[in-house]
Every structure is written in C-alpha cells, then in structure tokens.
Design a protein that fits this description.
Chains A, B, C, D: It holds the Pfam family Chorismate_synt. 4 copies of one chain form a homotetramer. Chain A contains 8 helices and 18 strands. Chain A is an alpha+beta fold and 370 residues long. In chain A, α1 crosses α8. Chain A is globular and about 70 Å long. The interface between A and B is large, with 122 and 123 residues. β11 of chain A pairs antiparallel with β11 of chain B, so a sheet runs across the interface.
Chain lengths: 370, 370, 370, 370
Amino acid sequence: MSINSFGHLFRVTTWGESHGPALGATVDGCPPGVAIDEATLQHWLDKRKPGQNKFTTQRREADAVKILSGVFEGQTTGTPVQLMIENTDQRSKDYSEIKDKFRPGHADITYFQKYGIRDYRGGGRSSARETAARVAAGGLARAAIASLVAGVEITGYMVQMGPHKIDRDRFDWDEIVRNPFWVPDARAADEWASYLDGLRKSGSSVGAVIEVVARGVPAGLGAPVYGKLDTDLAAAMMSINAVKGVEIGEGMSAAMLTGELNADEITMGPDGPVYSSNHAGGILGGISTGQDIVLRFAVKPTSSILTARRTITKTGEETEIVTKGRHDPCVGIRAVPVGEAMMACVLLDHLLLHRGQVGENRGHIGESPA
Amino acid sequence: MSINSFGHLFRVTTWGESHGPALGATVDGCPPGVAIDEATLQHWLDKRKPGQNKFTTQRREADAVKILSGVFEGQTTGTPVQLMIENTDQRSKDYSEIKDKFRPGHADITYFQKYGIRDYRGGGRSSARETAARVAAGGLARAAIASLVAGVEITGYMVQMGPHKIDRDRFDWDEIVRNPFWVPDARAADEWASYLDGLRKSGSSVGAVIEVVARGVPAGLGAPVYGKLDTDLAAAMMSINAVKGVEIGEGMSAAMLTGELNADEITMGPDGPVYSSNHAGGILGGISTGQDIVLRFAVKPTSSILTARRTITKTGEETEIVTKGRHDPCVGIRAVPVGEAMMACVLLDHLLLHRGQVGENRGHIGESPA
Amino acid sequence: MSINSFGHLFRVTTWGESHGPALGATVDGCPPGVAIDEATLQHWLDKRKPGQNKFTTQRREADAVKILSGVFEGQTTGTPVQLMIENTDQRSKDYSEIKDKFRPGHADITYFQKYGIRDYRGGGRSSARETAARVAAGGLARAAIASLVAGVEITGYMVQMGPHKIDRDRFDWDEIVRNPFWVPDARAADEWASYLDGLRKSGSSVGAVIEVVARGVPAGLGAPVYGKLDTDLAAAMMSINAVKGVEIGEGMSAAMLTGELNADEITMGPDGPVYSSNHAGGILGGISTGQDIVLRFAVKPTSSILTARRTITKTGEETEIVTKGRHDPCVGIRAVPVGEAMMACVLLDHLLLHRGQVGENRGHIGESPA
Amino acid sequence: MSINSFGHLFRVTTWGESHGPALGATVDGCPPGVAIDEATLQHWLDKRKPGQNKFTTQRREADAVKILSGVFEGQTTGTPVQLMIENTDQRSKDYSEIKDKFRPGHADITYFQKYGIRDYRGGGRSSARETAARVAAGGLARAAIASLVAGVEITGYMVQMGPHKIDRDRFDWDEIVRNPFWVPDARAADEWASYLDGLRKSGSSVGAVIEVVARGVPAGLGAPVYGKLDTDLAAAMMSINAVKGVEIGEGMSAAMLTGELNADEITMGPDGPVYSSNHAGGILGGISTGQDIVLRFAVKPTSSILTARRTITKTGEETEIVTKGRHDPCVGIRAVPVGEAMMACVLLDHLLLHRGQVGENRGHIGESPA
C-alpha cells in the first residue's frame, strides 16, 4: 500500500532527492528471464536528458543508471531490481538564497506545512528530476512487455504547447524524433521553436499537452470498477509532476458528443472484432479493446520564472521571489518520455494482473465454446 | 491490493450486479465513534434515485440501504461496515433479446473477451447502478469527515451538458438543488431542460462535465509522488462509469497558461497563507493547500440509444442492435452525487493517512518553531 | 491494504458481528468460470456448525449462506462475490449482565481501550462466529483451486487436546470424519471424549493443536522473502481467533535438529525431484517444493468458563465475572475447518500470484533448456 | 501489495543479492522529523556483523550502511529512505563448483523451478545476508518509535540452542550482551560454547529458538482479525530465513493449558489495568494490552554442512554435494538482531496505523466518559 509506490504486481517505488547523493527506483515484480542491461535503460534515460537542446534545463548531468540487483547473467531473476542514478551536477548555491521562501506554484509551501522540514535544494523530491527514476523503471517495463507480448509500441508526443496545437492532418509519426519537441508535425516544430525561444528570453514559461499511444495491446487488460486500466493510467499520469488533467480517448470532449457520434460500432474481421472508430481511446468499461490506447495529459507551466512573484517566508513575512539559474520554459517537453514510461509500467502491471486473474482471455468471439 | 477496492486506510469494496439480488459496499477502516444510521445514508442515496424527474432513467426502485455490520448503538465500531441495497425493480425481460449482442460503447464486449462470461442483464456490474453502493459509502465518509474536521463542505454540480456550458458569471450555489440537473445557473437549467427533452424524444443522449468542490479542507493532505491527493482523486473519478477525463484546477487548460498567469501568489493572512488565485485547484505537489479543491470530470454519452447501431454477436455474426426500454439521455446528471461521494471517500482516506503518517501538520508558518 | 482483508490477488474481507443482523465475506479476485452454488458452500459451513455434538457450543443457528453477487448461471464472473450468513439465534440476554465487565483472556478490554466502543454481545467481531465467513470463503477457494489444478487435497485434524497427543503410529486418515474431534486416531477419539466430558461438566476448557495438510500442491508457489508461502500461511493461521503459535514442518522442534537430521535429501524420480523426508513441511525458501505442505497451529483454551475470575469494569472497579450460558470447552474443534479454509484461501491466492508473476514454472529439472 | 515488501504505513522493501554489487532497503512511510544518521544505523548492523567470534560465519565484510535519500540535515523528511550496503567480501569461487547442484534444505531447487534462473553465488537473495538490510531498516524503525513513544525497549535473546534450553530461574538481562550468543543465562553461555565448538569442528550445525520482548508498548495497537498485531508479527518472523515456527506468549504450549490456568486476570492499578500474568504475550484479540509483548521463533539448522548429502543437478542427475567454505554452525545467533529489527518495524507500523485509524485510544478505563 505504500504511498510512494505504484502498481500492483509490477510495483515501482521511487526514492531520492534532486540534490541528494542519488535517486532511483526499486522495481519489484518484474517477471524473470527478461534480458536487460544498463545500456538499454540508459537509452531511455538519454531521451530525457536535459541539455540536449537549449529549450530544456541547462543543467548538465550524467544521468548514468546502474543496476544494483535483480539481474543475473543479463536476465531478471524475478527479485527486486534496484536502479540507481547518482547526482553529479548539483550546484546547490543556485537555490540557497531562497531556502526560506516558498516558490509560488511549487510544493515548497505544502511540503513545509505537512512535514515541517523541506529540502529546499532544487525542489527536493518534487523536482522533475525524480522522473529520471521513472523513466529507468519504464525502460525495464518495456523490455518485460516485449518478453510477454510481441508488437506492443508505446509512443508519446506533444500535441499542444501553450495555445498552439498541432494540425492532425499533418500528423507524421516519423517527425517525432526529428525535432526537439517530439511533435509529429514539422510545421509546428518550426513555429514552436520561435515561440519558445521568445518565452525563454523573457524568462517566462508555458504549459503543454502530451499524448501517449500504445499500439498492439491485447484486449482484456484491466479489471472492472476500481482496477480499471484507465483508472491506473489516470493515476499514473496525474502523478507526474505538474500534471493537471488526464484524458482517455475523447477525454473532456466526450461531454460534447451525442450517443450516435460517440459510439464505436463493431464489425467482424478475420482476426476478431473491428471497431469503426476509437472515441473510447482503446478502453471500454475499464478493459482494453485491442484498439490503440490513446491518452493525453496536460502539464502546467514551470513556476520557476525570472519575474518577481509575491510570496511569504517560513516565518510568515511577505516578500518577493525571483528564481534565477536554470529552469525549463516548458517542462512538457521532458514529460514526453515520462508519459511513455508510465504507460509502459501500467501496461506491464496489467499484463501480469490479467495473467494472474484469468490466465488468458476466456471469451473467444466467433469460435464455438470450448 | 484488491482490484475492486479503493482507498488505503478508508477502503471501499463495492459488490453486486445491476440485476443480482443485491449490491453494496464493504467499507473498512471507518474511524470509530462516528454517529451514523440508515436514514442518513438514505438521504444521499435519494439524491441519486432515478425517477425523480423525467430526465433520468424511468426505472423505479426503492434503493433502500441497510447497515448490516460495523455500527453499534448508533456509532461506528471501527470494524467493517457492510452496506447493502436490495434490487427490487429489475424487469429482466427488457434485455433478454440482446443477450448475445454487444452494445457498442459498453463493456459488454470487453467483459466477455476477458471473462468468457457476461451477466447481460442490464449491464451487470458495469452498470451505473453500481454507483448506488458508492454513494452509500460516500455518505458514511461524509459523516466520518465531520467527526474529524469541522466545516468541510463537498458540493458537485454540472457545468456542461453536451455543447452547452454554464455562465460562470451567473454562478449561484443555491440554484444547484432547485433544478433537476444540479446546475448552478438558473438560465442554463431552463435551456438544458428543453435541450434534453428533445434528445430524449429522439432517443439520443449526450455527455456532460461535472465539477466537484471541497471547501474547508485543511492543508497538508496527500503524500508526495504516487500517494498524491490529486492522483487518488483522478483515479476515483476515472473509475466512475463512463468517465473519460479528469481535471484538477485549470485542468487541460493549464497547458495554455504562461507561468505568470498560472502562479497563485501567496500573501499572509491572520490565519495563515492566503493565495491570490486558485489555478492549482487546491493542490500543490499533490498536497492540499487549504484552498478549495476544485476538480472536473467528463462523462461520455449513454450508449443505450434507440437508434440501430452495427455490432456483432458472441459468435461473431454481424448484426444491428437497438436498445429499447429504459435509458438515461444524460448519465451525467446521476454522476453528480457519485462525484461527491468519491470526493468524500478520498478526502477521508487522506485525513486518516495524514494523521497516521505525520500526526498533524508539522510546519507552522509565522510561528516560532516548536 | 485494508486491515480487515486478507490476500493479494484472491482477497477476502470478512464483516459482521456475532450478534449483528448478519455476517459475511466479500471475496474479490476469484477467477471466472468456477462452478459454485450455495449448497456447495453450505457443505463446508455445516462441517463447522455448532450443536453437532455436545462438545461444541450449544448455540443453535442455521448458518445458511447466501451468494449475493459475483455468480451468474452457476459460475463465478470474476467480479466480487458477496457471501452472507444471517444470524438467526442470538439470545442476547445471556450476555447483558456482563456488558460492563471485561472477560479475562478476551479482546473485550483491548477493543474498548482502542475504540472506546465495544459490542459486548457475544464477543462482537472477535467471536469465533466470525470464522463462519472464513469457512464460506474457503469453500469458494477450494472450488477455484480445483478449476486450476487437479488433485489438491486439503485436510485438517486435531493432533493434540490439552496435554493429550495422538499416536502417529495409529494415524488413520479415514478416522478423521468418524469422530466429533476430527482426530485421525480412534483410540484418542475415545480418550478425548471422556476427558472433554469431564471438563465440560466442571465448566473448564482446554486448548488444542490442529494440523492442516495440503497434498498435491505444485512446486513453485510463493515469492521470496516477504511474499513467502509460509509467511502468508503463518499470518492466516495466527489471524484465527485464539491462535497463539504456528509451525511449518518441524516447526519449533526444528531448533533441536542438527543439519544432518534436518536436511531433506533429493533424488530423481520419473516425474521430477523426490525428497527423502519432509522436515521442511513442503516449503523451502518460502516456495512450495511439491511435497505435502504440513502446518500446525495451537489454539488457547476458551476463556468463557464457569469459574469466577477477577477482572475490572469499564469504570475501573474491581469485580469478578462468571460467564454463564453457552461456551466451548475446546474451541480447537471448531478451528479445524477454519484452518482448512485459510489453507485453501492462501493456496488459491498463491496459485494466482504465481501465474501472474511467472506464468508457469520456468525451471524444468532433467529437461534440456527450452 | 508488493510481494517483496512488508508493512502497511511503514513499508520496507529489501533488495539485493548476497553476491551482487549491493543490497539494501527502501523504507517508505517513516514519519518526518526523526533524527537519524549512518552511525546510528551502523550500530545495529555491527551487532549483526559476522566475524565477531568464531561461532558465526568466517566471512568478513564491512557492512557499511549508507543513507542515500529521505534524510535532510539529520532528520527524516517523510519521503522514502534508501539504505544501501555495498558487498565488499564475496569470494565467489567458494561456490562455483556447485552451481549446478541444489543444496538440500536450501531454496536453490525451488528458486530454480519457479524462476528458471538462479543466482547460485552464496544463496543469492535467500541468503542470510539479506537480513542486513532488515537490520538497517529496524534501526530506523527504532529511532522513529522513540520519537513517537518514550520508553519502548526491544530485546532479543536465545532461549534454546539445539536441545539445550536456558534456565529461566537464572535469567539475567545484563548477561545478554556479555556473551557471543545473546543468551541471558551465563551458565548456558558456557555450556553452549563447548557444544557449538564441537559441532563446528565436525562440520555440523544446529537450530535455535530466539525470544524477542518489547516492553513499554502502549495498549491498543493492532486492528481486529487480519490486521492483528500478532498476525503481522508472525508473518515478520516467519519471513526470516530458516524460520519454521512462531509463538506469541504461551505459544504452542497454550494448547496444554486449561482456561483457568491460561486466563490473565485483571485488577486495577494507579495507571490503569494490571494483569496477574502474561500467558497472552501482551496481545489479546490481536491488540496490544500494554504488557510486555513476548514472542519466540525457531530457526532450523544451517544446511551448508561439510558432510556429503545426496542431491540432484539441474539436469536431473543424482549426485552428492559437500559445501566447503564458510558456514554458520548456528544461524540462530545471527537471527537475534534480525528478530529485534522485525519487531521494531512491525511496532512502528502499528503505531502509525493506530494513529491513522483511531488517533489515540478512545476508551479510558476508570475515567468518566469524555
């Protein structure tokens, strides 16, 4: 039940502070026999590494992941896997001036009120760096998924930056890895580059919407009501730092549809049911249909901006705060691999749960009963 | 860890099918000494009862809740409380024609694929009636919250029906209980009445957005990262039947904001910190700030409509389906008390978790250290 | 995580008080497609029913179990199964005199200290009647086990009553159901009948040791360290009312053995490994070996005896207490089917966990690697 | 729910293999504001360190614990604490000869059957070294308990080695730390020294019984039925490597008592209830009474002995095995601090659970109702 853990059978507990000696993830329940090594996990972390371009945090760090347990002769043993990333670039002095002030929009004030103690260096645990551990865990989850089911692909990309949305008609999967924003629309990539450059120079920041799609997921994952696949996905995405909304399929727009427009009609194909559309986002009644699972989450803008904001100190004095140093004009960019990692962790968890609860799907449409 | 349970210390497991003998909720972890009786719980259920007006399901039922355990001499004992609601009005024959067809947009097909067995009568467990159990559990949670903290108020209301949104400038708390939609805008109530009447006559249906506000919640609830208050709230709302999106505070719109516009500045008041705005929706870093907790969730339209839809049978034959009988033109209306109930359950759970984990808030702003 | 629930994937939450309207078990995670009905569960409950003989409580009750959910057309659906047993024979007046006194050896005093409220009628929830719900859940578990693995047999029997132990040389499986004590030793059955008769007449009571054996359990169940099969079995048995000790295999006597005597040597048979002995009780490193799983638990004597005992009242006054009315001279007799039920619940849970975590055993001794 | 985690609110997940790079414990849910540092934890580890005397494993290692997260400026922050112990002395070659044979009495065979992969070096995860992580976690738990409740003392000691038991009449608390066996009986210490020396020379091994007492524990800890304090204690002790039996209070001997002899009578003292005896071991109905909590667990003899034993290889060939190198003639000695650590972890967990569930005890005997 641990409050800092996530998952049921595939369980991830992240630990570590932004400016502590290290951070990591204790991953329990990974199925045995999964081939994994540090290089594979590093690949996923590098996707997230800041400093790749001028749009993300200027902070340089190695982000080198080590596997401390749970892997023997290149395979998981089924025992807990400890992933550790040492913090090598901390520059604590950037934050020392503001150790008694609460940054608006950050968890500084709520952490202090709750715990009476706050690691003020770089946001402590609530910092976006905590997500490095999640990305590492997600890399392990991806490998495990591949060992269980062939053909599952998880892809995340930005669909909105500030007020700017992509043009779905120009959607190009291949474009995603060609620009610094993981946006599947080449024109948007150009426009957003200028836009964000302007924001960065003015010390401002903006939010974003990230969409994550999982293709090739078998039908049947998720258990009714509270163990729903979409429930766990919503929780996973909402747990990412700075996320304020989550949608599955049509999402908030589902409210606007009528029943006729919303229903995904069903016909029969050679391999099973075929759906005429995917308003449901691949999940019906909390269980995967076999269609693409489509979700989106919104990330609010970074609060560490160079404009002075009114706030108070620990002792209740009113003051102003200006956060200098490194900051992200759009944390949404970094959230793309994190969203993918969470999708991977939840899907793996549900693949194991499904196998445990029912073994394999028991209802075969079109076949005579066993 | 049960997949059909919800909560950590205050844990609710719902059980029962729409057309089974009964349904209910096993509520575990309710603090002892809470004054509760069946009449109090019934009040919350009656708020949900269909047949109140012609806009909700025509199905008549008593929805009478019984307390079978966990209460002695009018107080909770701290042991599991079993709440049961017997099904008295079922009219199974309404559905018998379609027992081999999968209704598009429903969990019929996914349940069958996963379990190989499906209670086709009225949607079985995925039916909206399962929420009666949640509303009963929510009634108990409200009573428990009141025994722990004075002044917490939980109110839900509709802010959108189909394409129609309320006018926030006409927002009137008192209007909520005066119309059949729980909408805080008298003019919208009139407009929506006509709109929905038209939909009902044509056999169509529409979605909705419900907003739930919790006032008077103390700061400090929620634990960092995965045990965040917003994570549990998101999961709770997403678990409601037909929900496709969840937002906290600005929600999906947070993406559009710049850092300056999004930050809720902090000043000092006589009783503690005062926020200039509430874009955060009352939660920062997963922990409550003491501000109003504001969330919204979107409900997709009912799929049981009187228009024929293409689908397949269990044996894979293509066919059409028309669901006659009773249906909701807008299930969103019924989701309002359910959203309130889930808010109550999650808040109680976090009040207990907070008390267990830290006792009481340890950081007092403005006071000299203890 | 619920504190009143048990199990991981197959999860049982019992509810209900001895003198409340009903008691029962919410069973979540039962695999779908298991054939079950009330008569089958009733069989297991009848094994437990008091009044069968003069040695158990004189309390007469129907103990009729009802299935309120989770079963459709004779099969489990995979959704929560609600089992309910209504209390029909309560005779509250037996206890009313002592509602302000704490019975020594009972949970009366600790319940009151913790909760400030105590259902004094018949021991409330801590009463042995709560185990009726467990036995019902165990009946469901047995059916589910049979649907997963053929040939698993779970048998419990008494091996000690007070100071009297069975003679292992006279062990006879068939004798177990032929006497009122479920003791596999006909001579012991005779001796114990006289012994217990004497105790009953004098209003005294005595403890017992129950042994439960599970045969035909496949190797591989249990996860290392905390998710060990013996860990869960120990917890399950210790949770039974009045249990004070649990042993696996050699149990406490393992301390006396030397390494040579304790080691179960391994040879190879046609179907796999063969062990020369079973000091381990069928579990090595927390994982089943495929041998008989053998455990024992000790039940302390009933504290409700007809001799006056010194105690205090709720207001702290010293007094004496004599419990009249119905009582068990040896609750151990009733614990036999409960021990079997707990064994069944834990084994089913681990069969599902095993399937979820690894699928099926991956290491095949004697075969060339896959 | 993680299978390798332990606890509800204070949750410990151990990780790491005997011969991997490191091992450790992820401790989640430690209350904030607890003063802790590496030296304090090291104290508890040193108590466990092998090589202290010739009776424990000859393996030398630093066993230096590092705190990687969750502590800031000398206090816990309430976030996960990562404790890591690097493996510095491994001598893998000791085991390489036997990498394809299963040591009788070890988890080698069951691990292989379940996972198909086995870290054969030194017993991998099932090795007793895994308990170093538990002892470190226990050190943190002790500090947290002290911050919550004054006066709780947890002490473990041996009461039996092989067939030799201590003489309770010679019980001396001060003797415990003066001999290499933590036995509270000076004469037994002498006798056992000779006895064990003989065993060691012959390459044999023997089991032990360890008793752990917790004094000063407030009444009210534990929740009814499955969340019982004794249930969690039993699970905790049974999870220790090589444990085969657990007892609370009278334990297995409770079976032999009559009701009159077993009942702990109650009188009233200046500070509350006073019990005439403690057959219950400090727990009634799963809830602590305020008396000393007394438990015992039995450890089976080490299976790594210098005598040849019959076994099989991974490929099913019959063979013999002789384990040379380092081994423990009595692992029970090392289990003493582990038992203490588990007691500390469970008690802290229940202190937090109690606070979360009920706040503080609500029933005050002798006082007028609030």
